[in-house]
Amino acid sequence: MTDADIRVDDGWEADRIAFCAEPAADGWARSGVALEGPLARQFGTLAVLLLDADSLHEAMERVVSAALRIVPQADLASITLRSADGGFHTPVRTHEAAEELDRIQYQVGEGPCLEAARRERPGYALANNLPESDGFPEFGARAGRLGFGSLLATTLLPDAKSDLPPGAINLYSHEAGAFDGDAVDSALVLASHASLALSGSAAHTAAALKEVHLKRAVDSRDLIGQAKGILMNRRGISADEAFDVLRRTSQDLNVKLVELAHTVTERHRELDL
């Protein structure tokens, strides 16, 4: 593998600060919010948009949409996530061709997106001449046949407390040599914002799911309690005996206990209890 095929950047903080201080070439709009002026303002607005997303999936979709404007050399963008078993998948992409290019890397076990997704620190992997890549020969050749010349992948590193797995933001260009130093800087800053925002979105989603599950558990308990009360009143039995009747009946009918309890409470006047 040569330096032209993969470059890893661990000391990019100073470059990021200098980069953010320079003016943007143009602005872009998303969800009615204009991103204009210095790049620092662009990324600040982008952070708000990401944190304002209603779901983790929507936040990731906003990341890949923003990527094509923040790094205009890119023609396609996608996100790779690494699963607990070591596998990889593509939850969002701007075009199906990006998912196909990701899938090729997963299949052959090589490529910038895998290099970036496996990292434990901020950085990137760059292949700026895919058809002639020494580091990724099989993927590079196949990507070249599909009409792509460059791939820049930056590492997504979620918060350690987040359930979101590590991954990468993948930027594809039809042109060889598409990604210069400014493009790399832009992509690195985007990855840092995305990592924080996606971690927050994942935590919010997990908390929301936990709340939903807790509410369902409370509702189920209340429903079973109502059904028990009806049986106790009808049959003159204890709470434990009423619960045992519900449990045996649910097993005999092969229905969930909470579903049986719902039927008892809704139709107890019609049923011979």
Classified by CATH, the class of the largest domain is: Alpha Beta
Summarize the amount of helix as a percent range: 40-55%
Outline: elongated
Q: What's the main sheet like?
A: 5 strands, antiparallel
From the alpha-carbon coordinates, what is the Rg to the nearest angstrom? 26 Å
Order of H and E elements: HEEHHEEHHEHEEHHH
Unreliable stretches covering 5 or more consecutive residues: 1-37, 203-209
* Total individual domains: 2
CATH topology of the largest domain: Beta-Lactamase
Beta-strand residue percentage:
5-15%
Biggest sheet strand order reads 4-3-7-6-5
Looking at the overall shape, the CATH architecture of the largest domain is: 2-Layer Sandwich
Tally the beta strands: 7
For the record, give the distance between the C-alpha atoms at the N and C termini, rounded to a whole number: 75 Å
| Count of helical stretches | 9
Domain ANTAR: 204-265
GO molecular function: kinase activity; RNA binding
Keywords: Kinase, Transcription, Transcription regulation, Transferase
Pfam families: ANTAR, GAF_2
Give a description of the structure:
The chain is α+β, with helices and mostly antiparallel strands and 273 residues long. Helices cover 53% and strands 14% of the residues. Strands 4-3-7-6-5 form a five-stranded antiparallel sheet, with helices on both faces. A two-stranded antiparallel sheet has the order 1-2. α2 runs antiparallel to α3, α2 (39-51) runs parallel beside α7 and α4 (96-108) runs antiparallel to α6. It is elongated. The model is unreliable at 1-37 and 203-209 (pLDDT under 50).
